[in-house]
Write a structure and sequence with these properties.
Elements lengths: L6 H18 L25 E7 L2 E7 L3 E5 L14 E9 L8 E7 L3 E2 L12 E4 L3 E4 L8 E4 L4 E4 L3 E2 L8 E8 L8 E7 L13 E4 L4 E7 L5 E9 L6 E9 L3 E7 L5 E2 L10 E6 L17 E9 L5 H8 L4 H9 L4 E5 L25 E8 L3 E9 H4 L5 E3 L7 E10 L11 E3 L2 E7 L7 E6 L5 E3 L1
Parallel strand pairs: 3-29
Antiparallel strand pairs: 1-2, 1-4, 4-26, 5-25, 5-28, 6-27, 7-10, 8-9, 9-21, 10-20, 11-20, 12-17, 12-21, 13-14, 13-20, 14-15, 15-16, 17-18, 18-19, 21-22, 23-24, 23-26, 27-30, 28-29
Length: 465
């Protein structure tokens, strides 16, 4: 007869008891336990990484994507200089900081649109200002907000619809603008003026105009019949690094009498003028035609401007005080739009990405983007995003263009070139043409859920006409 407890069976029973003790605690009793759980540690090991860095003349931008996403980049990989008789180029170094091989990547580039940047007109929406050259946006304003434009390097802005000068001279009107220049600034320059040219062409002195002279004082000039003019100058200088408010109010009875106010100080009046024969002219910020003006300042201003307006009526003393004393940008806007006879109000609070698609002076309905040609090619590996000589308007249709991607730790060289098309017109010189650009990288094959896009769509995403 076989024994009930053989050595082998004893060993099995002892092992089972040991397991039971481990599961139930330090004793054979379950009374001290209420629940039990078994977990498996997370596997955090990465199979691969998707990461890229762009280094270009106006900045750098990088991304690391665990899943799909978008990163916003500053500036633009496109040339920053204005178009000229020679081709402008910009080189961008694109480095694969991840571990996906070139064969495991899909790399695409595109531009989504192209149109001139505008400075909105809150009263007459169809007549915005178009900024040019090195205009900056969302700068510090008179109310400690971010609602001013900055002008430098020949930057200025002009509206797109002509004003007949005969509607001003012989009638009452006013124009006003906030301004700031650096402390000790000694070049002077225009604040707000009405000029014959739709751009910065010179022919005859602008009228009316408000400008700063080289001593920092504010002047005005209005031209009448037979070459006569009326002018005046502030008693104080305002080149002190602070914000100031200039207002020219012209009262018309038998003649037009202009009076200049700065910061609501006592006015400076000029001689009365007879009406001028009407002709078309365009409002400008930061530029004026000083043809025939004695001791002119710089033709462009280096400084900041905010809240420019034009009215078809004079501005009373009480209203001037109210405008100067407004506590915020929105309060100022409300006060300006309530002015009697208000015809134009450019708040200058724009972000630099809103565009204008209407008819333009000189070139009409033709898009400025048809007047610039673009080419975009890469090396290491070689590829063509768009063939040289392609109109920017043709390229900027949102289509993705695929090229080879660099290997891990390798750098690809990307070069964008811009040149004037045979149809280029001098009117578009310096226009800020908004050109949002994107670079999409995906794990191959494309269309999956592991992708990332770098986008250049801020105020710096422009090419200059």
């Amino acid at each position: 007869m076989t024994p009930l407890l053989t050595p082998a069976r004893v060993s099995v029973l002892l092992a089972g008891a040991a397991v039971l003790l481990v599961l139930t605690g330090t004793s054979a009793s379950l009374s001290g336990w209420t629940a039990a759980a078994v977990s498996n540690g997370t596997n955090n090991a990465a199979d691969a990484s998707l990461a890229f860095t762009h280094s270009y003349p106006t900045g750098s931008c990088s991304l690391t994507a665990r899943t799909s996403g978008t990163v916003s980049c500053s500036g633009s990989p496109a040339p920053a200089a204005a178009s000229s008789g020679s081709t402008q180029t910009a080189v961008d170094s694109i480095t694969n900081d991840g571990t996906l091989t070139a064969a495991q990547l899909v790399s695409d580039f595109r531009a989504t649109s192209c149109a001139p940047v505008q400075l909105a007109n809150s009263k007459t929406a169809a007549d915005p200002m178009l900024p040019r050259y090195s205009t900056s946006f969302a700068g510090s304003d008179p109310w400690a907000g971010a609602g001013a434009i900055g002008l430098s390097g020949g930057a200025y802005a002009a509206d797109v619809q002509a004003t007949n000068t005969g509607t001003l001279l012989g009638s009452s009107y006013a124009l006003g603008v906030w301004f700031k220049v650096a402390n000790g600034y000694a070049s002077g320059g225009p604040l707000l003026s009405l000029d014959v040219a739709a751009d910065n062409g010179t022919s005859a002195a602008g009228t009316p105009m408000i400008y700063m002279d080289t001593a920092g004082k504010i002047r005005f000039r209005v031209t009448g019949t037979l070459g006569t003019s009326s002018s005046g100058v502030s008693a104080a200088a305002y080149n002190d690094g602070s914000w100031h408010f200039a207002l020219l109010s012209v009262a018309a009875t038998l003649v037009s009498t202009p009076t200049l106010y700065v910061d609501n100080a006592a006015g400076v009046s000029g001689l009365g003028l007879a009406a001028l024969t009407g002709g078309n002219a365009y409002w400008h910020l930061g530029w004026a035609d000083f043809t025939g003006v004695g001791s002119p300042p710089a033709s462009t201003l280096t400084g900041s401007l905010a809240g420019a307006f034009v009215t078809a009526a004079t501005v009373s003393s009480a209203t001037r005080t109210s405008l100067f004393g407004t506590a915020s940008s929105s309060a100022y806007a409300t006060a300006v739009l309530a002015l009697s006879g208000i015809t134009h109000f450019w708040p200058l609070t724009d972000a630099g990405t809103s565009t204008y698609g209407g008819s333009l002076p000189v070139i009409g309905a033709t898009s400025p983007c048809t007047m610039l040609d673009i080419g975009w090619a890469t090396t290491s590996p070689a590829g063509t995003v768009v063939a040289a000589g392609t109109k920017v308007s043709t390229f900027a249709d949102g289509t993705w263009h695929t090229i080879g991607a660099p290997a891990p730790a390798a750098t690809q060289t990307s070069t964008i070139s811009l040149s004037r098309d045979a149809t280029w017109n001098s009117y578009i010189a310096g226009l800020r043409l908004y050109l949002p650009i994107g670079h999409r990288v995906q794990a191959s094959p494309g269309g999956g859920n592991w992708a990332a896009t770098l986008t250049w769509a801020g105020s710096g995403a422009v090419v200059l006409g």
